[in-house]
Amino acid sequence: MTDDMTRYSAGEIEAKWQEVWNKAKVFQSEGASDKPKYYVLEMFPYPSGRIHMGHVRNYTLGDVIARHKMATGHNVLHPMGWDAFGLAAENAAMDKGIHPGEWTYQNIKDMKSQMKPLGFSLDWSREIATCHPEYYRHQQAMFIDMLEAGLIYRKNAVVNWDPVDMTVLANEQVIDGKGWRSGAEVEKRELTQWFFKISDFSEDLLEALDGLDDWPAKVRLMQENWIGKSRGIEIPFHRTDGGEPIVCYSTRPDTMRGASFLAISPEHPVSRALAEDNADLAAFIAETRKMDTTEAAMEKAEKKGIDTGITVKHPVEADKELPVWVGNFVLMDYGTGAVFGCPAHDQRDLDFARKYGLEARNAFYLPGDEVEVGNEALVPAKSEPVVFIDHFAGIKDVTSQEAIDATIDWFEEKGLGTGQVKYRLRDWGLSRQRYWGCPIPVVHCETCGVVPEKKENLPIRLPDNVSFDQPGNPLDRHDAWRQCECPKCGESGVRETDTMDTFVDSSWYFVRFTAPRAETPTDAAEAAYWMNVDQYIGGVEHAILHLLYSRFFARAMQITGHLPQSAVEPFDALFTQGMVTHAIYENAERKAEGGRPIYHYPEEVEEKGGDVIVKETRERVKVIPSAKMSKSKNNVVDPVNIIEQFGADTARWFVLSDSPPERDVEWTAAGAEAAHKHLTRVHRIVSDIASSDETASQEADELLLKEMHKTIHDVSGGVESFGFNAAIAKLYAFSNTLSRSKAGSAAKRQSAAALVQLMAPMTPHLSEELWAMLGHDGLVTTAPWPVADEAMLVDDQITMPIQINGKRRAEISVPKDMDKAEVEKIALSEDAVIRALDGATPKKVIVVPGRIVNVVI
RNA sequence: GCCCGCGUGGUGGAAUGGUAGACACAGAGGACUUAAAAUCCUUAGGCUGAAAAGCCGUGCCGGUUCGAGUCCGGCCGCGGGUACCA
Predict the structure, then answer these.
(1) Which nucleotide has the shortest C1'-to-CA distance from A733?
(2) 3-state SS track over A21-75
(3) CB–CB of A274/A239 below 8 Å?
(4) Which window residues (423-482, chain A) lie with Cβ within 7 Å of strand B?
(5) Model pLDDT for residues A494-518, shown as the tens digit of each residue
(6) Which of A343, A567, A604, A831 is least surrounded, with the fewest CB atoms within 10 Å of its CB?
(7) d(CA A136, CA A145)
(8) How far is CA A93 from CA A162, A471, A639, A709, A719, in A?
(9) Which of the four pLDDT bands, split at 50, 70 and 90, describes residue A566?
(10) In chain A, what is the straight-line distance between the N-terminal and C-terminal CA atoms, in Å?
(11) Model's pTM, two decimal places?
(12) CA distance A531 to A726
């Protein structure tokens, strides 16, 4: 029955019901309410101009939660906004000559119009954009408060410097050590920059992870490792030339016997001092500065060093002297910028020692395995017992951890070192030498120094009349904007031209959503009511930086009075969705200017005889499978086509159905059509039921209703635990049951209504249509969520598999409460069991009630 | 390099330590149709076998357990993060 009256026409249905929702303002959150509040938030998007499948997945997940919470009687806040500052806008400005602001606002408009048809239950009345002065003026106010509270300071830090373009480069803009536009070798350069004192909160940020029960364990673990608490010791090594001792930090002082050299950072004061009259050393240091600033690049680079010529005394063995080397692998930012090398028990030190002919001597060996050091360092787990050789504190058979503790105690007792707890977490550098960001509201005055702006002068607006015809920060060359009055003495000063890292913008937007038009950064009452975010949803790629910065910012906002005490952890529950991936198509025959690879869009290539080629040029293409969808790699699938072809409900159903949401999913076009077929089928099944009128046997009715209650139970459970794909599988199964059921129309209508309601968070438009078709008055969106009847969930008779030695050989059907002995008896009388036993008695019979029987022979 | 994940049929995937492959996609066969589309029904991990049935099987190697996709140890491969992409 597929005539015109009952055909599923997504386009018409979706437009109609969106209009109904909008008119009724069903998605605008209430103020004070008797209902419990629920704040569900998806990570807000960067306005690139096109939504992609990752967005659709993210917002659909959030929307299902929001709609389900609405149906279960919550006052729901579900806002949306734009993370609107960033690098891409400046690139567009340079490439296309458009102002970053114009480009960004156009993109917001475009993306919004692409999102609207998806029918998300968003409260658009709260929309914010971080690039809007009405947003960033509050950020500037908080900056001033945090500066005055001592949470922000200035220090020198290195950046990637492009010597040809004369500009600072982001790590992403450095490709194989070269500037992405100029192709010039990138250098490190030191600048004075602004920092948040996040490291002051290391311990708190670490400890509070324990309370985040509804965060994924992996994210807590990643943050724990990122903060990187370690207990170690600072040991001064005395120079034989009488100079200032060099202080090393070590977490493995138990390996001291094996120490054979000291390695100090190229940026260490001693290195710098020695370089002044050591040309080789100066050249070595200069060489290490020609590397990008990423940790990965530094760690992967070949470990190199140079002997400084100075030596230090071993702190324990009086007659032993150690050479001091400068090593490119020693970070000035961590510990003291100096380490002692113990080749026997550290692989990196061993490689270094072998390369430069340094000694390798064991501090301990494994019990019963006393061997010389080969090419592999002996690094046992800290809990593993080892045997120490001539340990100065007299310990011998202990674990490494016990030895570390004993050694630290011994050093402290003798006054040879100081136990220290250190964290890997570094302060958050927020300065960016770029135009399209929130201006840092300070003035440099010759007499007063660095002075924060007066709050009444905020916002310090970005000037509009800037040009991008040359690289570098346009603010630097905008004299009219830079010239200003010193807020303190009134004489002339110059504005800070650094803008803020966009992570600052995204570290508090979730609080701004609670009072998006407030005259102060936050509204105490609204923040107290809505915070914390009950459920935060976003990509796992944000597991560390964004989430850690937000956790810090909540603390900083609390100290400066912008957040109530209760909101110290901003996100009660976190869900990290997997990415939507897609193959990348890289041109294998041609490169762009400057050696950059050329990437092709999926629709530009085709498969031909096992090879993939560019349709137009017939060039061969290298296929890089399942990579994060990224605008710069052109491997982005446009959901707009799918919505136009099949409708929003199909797109929503599809992104939820196939993969568990925490897992990455490789996008393929085939699935969307299947999703649409199914929705068409549901439309047909329910239409038929709505227009039929039959009675049937009570048995058939009961069977169907029992299945209905099971489905309500399972789907509700699935929706509450992000098991959407499994929930959808149950809905498929129930549609099949319903369409084949011989039940009467009353039972069928009841079941159809349940099906429609259970689908509503996922396919809200179709559900509204069918809900109305079944004769319901109100909206399914606001109808109370169905509740399963517990009594209907249990089966009296259950099937139990019979295993023989752990392999399934038969199954029996027994009443659910049958006692163990009885079950065992029935199991042993099964043919397959008798055959396998062949007259013998079983060694053991394990009966797990309600589950399984295992006969051990 | 380091930290964190992931790996199951042709494909997406399901499975509180308890019947591996639910539910789908693609496939094969059939019904309906003049035909096609749509729809409905059947089938389907691999190997052997006519069947009954048996053997193998969750990246690889090993362990714990009556029982392991699931827990533990060691590998391999892929992905994310690595502090200036967001």
Answers:
(1) B23
(2) HHHHCCCCCCCCCCCCEEEEEECCCCCCCCCCHHHHHHHHHHHHHHHHHHHCCCE
(3) no
(4) 424-426, 428-429, 431-433
(5) 999 999 999 999 999 999 999 999 9
(6) A831
(7) 14
(8) 19, 11, 26, 58, 43
(9) confident
(10) 58
(11) 0.92
(12) 31
- Does at least one atom of strand B sit less than 7 Å from the CB of A202? no
Q: Which amino acid is at A718?
A: G
Which nucleotides of strand B lie under 7 Å from a protein CB? 1-6, 11-16, 18-20, 22-26, 38-41, 54-55, 66-68, 78-86
Helix (H, G, I), strand (E, B) or coil at A457: helix
Contacts of residue A354, Cβ cutoff 8 Å, sequence gap at least 6 = A343, A360, A375
Tell whether omega for the bond before A736 is within 30 degrees of 0, i.e. cis: no
Going by pLDDT thresholds of 50, 70 and 90, the confidence category of residue A5 is very low
CB of A121 within 7 Å of some strand B atom: no
CA nearest to nucleotide B18 C1': residue: A852
Cis peptide before A459 (omega within 30 of 0): yes
Q: Which of residues 810-839 of A touch strand B (CB under 7 A)?
A: 811, 832
**How far: A227 CA to B82 C1' (Å)?**
13
Range A801-820 burial, b when 16+ CB lie within 10 A, else e: ebbbeeeebbebebeeebee
The protein residue nearest B79 (Cα–C1') is A627
| Long-range contacts of the stretch A269-272 (C-beta < 8 A, 24+) | A270/A243, A270/A244, A270/A246, A270/A308, A270/A324, A270/A338, A271/A308, A271/A326
The answer to whether A229 CB sits below 7 Å from nucleic acid chain B is no
A190 phi, psi to nearest 5 deg:
-95, 130
Q: What is the interface pTM, i.e. ipTM, of the complex?
A: 0.94
**How confident is the model at residue A625, as a pLDDT?**
58
Condensed to tens digits (0 to 9), the pLDDT of residues A118-127 reads 999 999 999 9
Distance A368 CA to B74 C1' (A): 21
Q: Can you give the distance from the CA of residue A663 to the C1' of nucleotide B14 in angstroms?
A: 14
Q: Which residue from A436, A591, A523, A520 is spatially nearest to A98, judged by alpha carbons?
A: A436
Query: Side chain identity at A273, as an amino acid letter?
Result: A
Spatial contact of A111 and A49, defined as CB atoms under 8 Å apart:
yes
Give the span between the Cα atoms of A179 and A163, in whole angstroms. Answer: 9
Which pair of structure tokens corresponds to residue A508? 């508090």
> Hey, which bits of A333-460 come out as E strands?
338-341, 364-365, 385-388, 397-399, 418-422, 428-429, 431-432, 442-445, 449-452
Q: Nearest Cα to A747, choosing from A700, A688, A701, A712? A: A701
Residue A781 (CA) to nucleotide B85 (C1'), in angstroms, measures 38
Strand B contact at CB of residue A668, distance < 7 A: yes
* Averaged pLDDT for residues A768-778: 96
Residue with nearest Cα to nucleotide B12 C1': A658
